[in-house]
Amino acid sequence: MLNIIWLITGILLLFAIMIHNPKSQGFGTQNQIFGSTRSAEQTLNKATWFLILLFFILTVVLSINNEF
């Protein structure tokens, strides 16, 4: 079960990183989804950091479970 969550988290993390625009202008349809560019970037940054943390925690938990 944790393996599936870890896999989904990894895929979502890749997607979140790929939709970041390096020039901080956001992605094309963000005005339709969010109220402003700044709001979209903040939400995307929070989601990305959450996924990074979740991925790291799951990686540690899965590696500990494999030892025993």
Poorly predicted ranges: none
N-C termini distance: 17 Å
- Structural class computed from helices and strand pairing: mainly alpha
Helices and strands, in N-to-C order?
HHH
Outline: elongated
What's the alpha carbon Rg, rounded to whole Å?
Answer: 15 Å
Membrane topology: Multi-pass membrane protein
Organism: Guillardia theta
Protein name: Probable protein-export membrane protein secG
Main location: plastid
Task: Report a brief summary of the structure.
Involved in protein export. Participates in an early event of protein translocation across the chloroplast thylakoid membrane (Potential). It is found in: Plastid, Chloroplast thylakoid membrane. With 68 residues, the protein is an all-alpha fold.
Written description of the protein model:
Pfam families: SecG. The protein contains three helices and no strands. Helix 1 (2-18) packs antiparallel against helix 3. 76% of the residues lie in helices and 0% in strands. It has one domain (2-17, 32-67). The mean pLDDT is 84. The protein is an all-alpha fold.
Write the layout of secondary structure elements.
Elements: H1 2-18, H2 30-33, H3 37-67
What would the keywords be for this entry?
68 residues; translocation; chloroplast; Probable protein-export membrane protein secG; protein-transporting ATPase activity; mainly alpha
